[in-house]
Amino acid sequence: MSDAISLPSDADKTGRDFGEEELTLLREVIESGTLNCTKGTQVNAFERDFAARYGMPHARAVTSGTAAIHTAISAIDPEPGDEIITTAITDMGGLSPILYQGAIPIFADVDPVTLNVTADAVASRITSRTRAIIATHLFSNPCDMQGIMRIATAHGIPVIEDCAQAFLATDHGRLVGTIGAIGAFSLQQGKHMTTGEGGVVVTADPQLARWMTLFSDKAWGYGDPKPDHYFLALNYRMTDLQGAVARAQLAKLESVVARRRRTAEQMTALLAGTPGITLPRARPEATHAFWKYPLIVDPAVVEGGSDALGAALKANGVFCAPRYIQKPAFQCQVFTDRKTFGKSQFPYSHREREDGTKIVYDAAEYPGTMQGLERVVVLPWNERYTDEHVHFIARTVQAAVATLAVRPRVKRAPSAQATA
Fold first, then answer.
1. Is the pTM of this model over 0.85?
2. C-alpha to C-alpha distances, 57 to 16, 41, 44, 201, 416, nearest whole angstrom
3. Which pLDDT tens digit goes with each residue over 154-212?
4. Where residue 145 sits, what CATH number does that domain have?
């Protein structure tokens, strides 16, 4: 396209909200000479501020979103071979901690439009060994938390909310991350707020909070009368350098999400009615925070479906991710070969289910997952987008869809020679 423009990217300063606020707090840390959080002040202040913003009594900062999920799962304290229900459309960082804590991921199917797990799909996966449910709010579009919590409560199963992509998204007026037992967040480079790498967990339960604080610091009881290393745990402490950046980023979060929402709503208005394209939309009782802007492409209307549309967008200056993660997690080698700890296949090999059924990840059982990944094209999104950027992306999508439109086949009338 002749009117191609360069889009801001969250991989660098063009698409990130960094400035003097971060530099000022970083300078305080450097000048203090104390970079670790055990003696510093920034991480502790960030934890207090983040907990307050989420209306929760407890927050614990850790080194990554993966560490946040691992810390949350550790607090649930599964027995080896216990099962944790989750989604197959997620980063591996949301799944590997399940295996590291000796539990087994059990995948629930998703809605093919939102790509979120559904309450019915979660209910269908519950067994006597189910220890927890992870509700992943994909792309910042909240899951049906009321439905999931109803099922979880009926079975006495705790829910961990994976909010890595869902800062300030809400369901029924409540911030996601505050509805289940634990909320886990990522501060990775491309998230709504970032420290490059980092994470944070929140909870209202003091016992869970205590466990997560211990787990992220080798289970050493700092401040206890007779401290010890109480259980097997890791060092997931965030540095005070990250804490300084996190504090400055948190102060900007409201503005960041508001700008993303404004431009996303503009995009939705511009693309409304585009043939073969389903636009992202939260349920009426929820609010979207637009980490990315996913399109669902109907291959019966757009020739070549998501792959062709994605290729056309990239060729015209709009980076995107057709099929998002390309394949569901259960088709990755770690799950197909059960390559975990040596040749043990632990925890799959630890014990059989009481009813004798086997854990099998069969694509035929996940029609929503397979269709959703086949049809999705994920557009980039960040707080630095302007009206010009939004109009450019919308024009590019519309032009690509028009070019790829499936044309109806016209039957030719038989020739005179053929009918002679």
1. yes
2. 29, 19, 13, 11, 84
3. 999 999 999 999 999 999 999 999 999 999 999 999 999 999 999 999 999 999 999 99
4. 3.40.640.10
Residue 299: cis peptide before it, omega within 30 degrees of 0: no
> In this structure, is residue 93 part of a structural domain?
yes
In a domain, 190, yes or no: yes
Question: By residue range, what is the domain housing residue 200?
Answer: 13-251
- Whether 47 maps to a domain, the answer reads yes
**What is the distance between the alpha carbons of residues 390 and 381, in angstroms, rounded to a whole number?**
10
- Structural domains in the chain (count): 1
C-alpha to C-alpha distance for 339 and 326, rounded to whole angstroms: 20
- Is the residue at 199 inside a domain? yes
Catalytic residue positions, numbered: 191
